Amino acid sequence: MIELGELRLNGYGLLIGLGIWLATEVSVWSGKKEGIKKEVIEKGFWWVVGGGLIGARLYHVVDYWEIYGKNWIEILMVWRGGLGIWGAIGGGGVGLLWFYLKNKDRLGLDLFRLLDVAVVGVPLAQAIGRWGNYINGELYGKVTNLPWGIKVMGVEGKVHPLFLYESGLNLGLFALLIWVLIRQKGEGAGGRVAGTYLIGYGLTRFFLESLRPEEIVWQIGEMAVAQVVAGVAVLTGIVLVKRGARRGEELPAGKN
């Protein structure tokens, strides 16, 4: 928390806000390439962000219900941290679908094209937001002797900087999505950007989850919930990529 006189700035919230803003700007840029008007992106933005924030908080609250169940008012204190990314992805997807169904006839768009445009900037936002986790002392890994290990309050020794690992991998995924978007064939071949994101981020979280301390991993039985969700995301991504590739091949030559 930074204090300037009476002005209080929360670093976590600022970084989350910056990430959302940049992701929206990327969506506007990619929307131009796909022939989607800026107004559509901006209106859909509120549905995606609103759904994403609700979903992210719900995921986190369910994960830590033993804490929030005893003090419900803390559920509303999002500025203290506590947003589950899988909840954000699911909630944002629901928000986008709701927006699309309410405006389908007026938009005249394929849902998968809109999905690609909405997703392309997400890993950039995540890469920035993970530094907010660092500010809050969140998203760290197991104790390590590696030279780049970091100190975390309340933990003896140095730990893996998972926030840094994921931030770097998300930046690489963002670059990959831009490449996929540029190479995407035709208006009816949407879905490959979103699919690539789900595969890339699903694999990232699946492997990084194994580096988290066991005592802070949300598990059902012997399975880490985040890894199960990551596996579902990868499978869904494969379906979307294949769908987009198949539709791209079916398009007339003039549409490519």
Explain this structure.
The protein is mostly helical and 256 residues long. It has one domain. Helices cover 64% and strands 5% of the residues. It has nine helices and six strands, in the order E-E-H-H-H-H-H-H-E-E-H-H-E-E-H. It has helices at 11-33, 38-63, 65-68, 85-107, 111-119, 122-135, 162-183, 192-208, 225-250; strands spanning 2-4, 7-9, 150-151, 158-159, 219-220, 223-224. It has a two-stranded antiparallel sheet with strand order 1-2. The chain has a two-stranded antiparallel ribbon with strand order 3-4. It has a two-stranded antiparallel ribbon with strand order 5-6. Helix 1 crosses helix 5 (111-119), helix 2 packs antiparallel against helix 4 and helix 5 (111-119) crosses helix 8. The relative contact order is 0.11. Residues 1-9 have low confidence and may be disordered.
